[in-house]
Amino acid sequence: MTLSPLKAVAMVPLALLACLLPLAAPETAPNLGKKGRNFTVHSSQLVCSLPGPQGPPGFRGTGSPGPVGKMGLPGKDGADGKDGERGDKGHPGEAGRLGNPGKPGLMGRQGVVGKAGPRGLKGSYPKERLPIRFNRILLNEGGHYNASDGKFVCAIPGVYYFTYDITLANKHLAIGLVHNGQYKIRTFDANTGNHDVASGSTVLRLQRGDQVWLQIFYSEQNGLFFDPYWTDSLFTGFLIFADQDFLNEVDQKANAEAT
C-alpha cells in the first residue's frame, strides 16, 4: 500500500491506538509533481505496541573476572591509634663513649696558707722580672755572657740558637727568654710535688750590642730550684752563622792591616 506524505502523517495517531496493524511491503509513493518527492513507508514504522509491565530482574551474570586495575593513589594518613601498653624494662645498654671535657668551673676560694717549706739553697727561687744569674760557667767562648748580671751581649751579628733547661721544686714555674726587654718565648710548668724540668728553645737574629737573658714573669711562680750537689739549671746560646756584611768587614780590616 502506498500513501502520500500527508496521509501517512495522518495515520500515525491511528497506528498508536492499534495493537497491531499489518502493512504490505514497503513501497515508494508516486511522484506528486515537480515539487513532490518519493516517500517510502516500511512496515516497521507503523507497527508498534504499548509498553508492557516491567519484567523481573535478570539473573546475575557469571562472566570471567576482568583484569587487575592499576594501583590507585595513596590514601591520606589515618588517625593515630591509641597508645599501647607500656613494655617491660629492657636490659642495660653498653656504656657510651666518653663525652667532651666540660667548661672550666668557677675559681674556688683561696685555701688556707700551708706550712712553710724548707728553705732553699742560695740561687733558688729568683725574684720576678730580673735577669737570672748563672754563676757556674761551663763555657763562655769570647766572654759574651756576663755572669755578674746574667745577660748575654751580642758581639758578632748573626743568627743564634738559645735553649734552657730549668729544674723546679715546691712551686710552679713561669719563666721566659727576653731579647732587649721583650719576651720571645715563655714556659710554664706546674709543681707536681716532685722535682721537674721545664725547657724551651728558639732562634734569634741579633745585632751587635743586643742582650738576651732569662727571667721570672710571675712572682708566685718562681720555682727554679738549685742544688750544687745533684741538680742544675742550664742556659745555653751559640752562633749558627754570622752576617755576611760583618764577615766582609772583618776581611777588609784584616787585609788592610796585612798591607
UniProtKB/TrEMBL annotation:
Write out the biased-composition intervals (Basic and acidic residues): 77-94
Q: Name one GO cellular component term.
A: collagen trimer
Could you name the domain of life of the organism this protein comes from? Eukaryota
Q: Where in the cell is it found?
A: Secreted, Extracellular space, Extracellular matrix
Q: Where is the signal peptide?
A: 1-26
Grouped into one coarse class, the protein's main location is secreted
Looking at the record, which segments are called Disordered? 47-124
C1q domain mapped to chain residues: 110-246
Q: Which UniProt keywords apply?
A: Collagen, Extracellular matrix, Secreted, Signal
What name does this protein carry?
C1q domain-containing protein
